[in-house]
Every structure is written in structure tokens, then in C-alpha cells.
Design goal:
It is built from four helices and nine strands. The chain is of the alpha+beta class. Strands 1-5-7-6-4 form a five-stranded antiparallel sheet, sandwiched between helices. Strands 2-3 form a two-stranded antiparallel sheet.
Length: 174
């Protein structure tokens, strides 16, 4: 299989914070509890699948998208001296190989990829989107929390090579 991936760091600007990105990717309605701004992308229709994958020791509340991304943004505000420049997450988009041409095959790829990221210690919020004007293939939109995760919640910042994400994820899946 061939992979096509693009990634970028989310930032704390109005239009690209991790809450707005999570709402867009999941086609959900989320509220930024710090600003009161509501991001509602339900009108775009549901993705084929969406899920949050957690490392083994992560608290269960992190499965709630609203709670997760608000906690990430709050943590950056409270623990980052330059919170306006903070990069609380890494966003990415991965093209699903055209050989995975049924919902069942895409589901398996999606689950394997999400579980691989979780085993590596990442909180991964993933959604499968259909082909559109920008992407001729089915694809996964994803966002990774850039903090260590423990039973107590968020911890020290982690550094990624780039989530295309790293060759380790792809090697583990093949």
C-alpha cells in the first residue's frame, strides 16, 4: 500500500485551535469553554467513522471530545509561558489506499492505525472522510495531543518527528 500524508501543528489562533479542528474533523458541535465560541460542522454530514484512541493509562474522560480538547487548550494556557504561540496538537491527513475499497476494509485500517498510535502513547482523535473536491480518495483526518498522558491527565510536552507520522506507525501496521 502507498500512503499519502500531510501534517501541521495546530496553533492557538481563533481559526485553527484544536477545538475547532476536532469539531471539523468529527463533523460535530463543540464549544470552546474559554471563549464561548461554538464550532458546529454537523451540517457537513457525518464522517464514515470517528473515534478517540487512548493509551492504556489514559483517563476515560479523554474519550469525550468536548472534554478532551478543552482540557488540552486549558492546559496550554496554564502551563505554557507563550500560550498564544502554543501548539497543543499535531493535525494530519492520511489518504487511505484505494485497495481498501469497502467500509469493512477502511474500518480495519482505521482501527489498526488508531490502536498503533495509542500503543505508542498518543491520544489520537481520528475520522474517516469520503473523497471530495480536494481529496480523490477516502482519507483519515487526525489530531494528536502533544502531551504525555497518565492516569492524572496531561503531562510534559512530547516531540514528534511528524505524524505522517512516523515510519514506526506504518511498520507496525504492515
Amino acid at each position: 500500500f502507498g500512503f499519502v500524508a500531510r501534517s501541521s501543528a495546530s496553533n492557538k489562533s481563533y481559526s485553527k485551535n484544536s477545538i475547532s479542528k476536532a469539531a471539523y474533523d468529527s463533523r460535530d458541535k463543540l464549544v470552546d469553554e474559554r471563549t464561548g465560541i461554538t464550532y458546529n460542522y454537523k451540517y457537513k454530514g457525518l464522517p464514515e467513522e470517528t473515534a478517540i484512541f487512548l493509551p492504556e493509562d489514559a483517563p476515560k474522560w479523554m474519550r469525550n471530545r468536548q472534554q478532551l480538547w478543552n482540557a488540552v487548550e486549558r492546559y496550554e494556557d496554564e502551563n505554557n509561558r507563550r500560550s498564544d504561540k502554543a501548539q497543543p496538537s499535531r493535525t494530519f491527513k492520511i489518504g487511505i489506499p484505494c485497495e481498501l475499497d469497502t467500509p469493512e476494509k477502511r474500518h480495519r485500517f482505521f482501527m489498526d492505525y488508531g490502536k498503533t498510535l495509542a500503543r505508542q502513547g498518543y491520544v489520537a482523535d481520528l475520522s474517516i472522510h469520503p473523497p471530495d473536491g480536494k481529496s480523490p480518495n477516502w482519507h483519515i483526518h487526525g489530531q494528536l495531543v502533544l502531551r504525555e498522558i497518565s492516569r492524572d491527565g496531561l503531562g510534559n510536552r512530547i516531540k514528534l518527528n511528524g505524524p505522517e507520522h512516523d515510519n514506526d506507525s506504518r511498520k507496525e501496521m504492515t
